[in-house]
Amino acid sequence: MPIVRWTLALLLGILVAGCDAGGLNVPDTNTIVLNDPSNPTQVTYSFRYTPDDVNGQGVIEALSEGRDNLGDILAQYGFRRSDIVAAQVSNVVLTRISNQSTAKVFPYLTSANVYLQGPNGPHIARQRPLSSEAQVELRVLDASILSVLQEDPARGYLELEVADPSSIPSSGDRVEVTITYRIEVPQP
Question: Looking at domain 27-186, does it have CATH number 2.40.50?
Answer without folding.
Answer: no
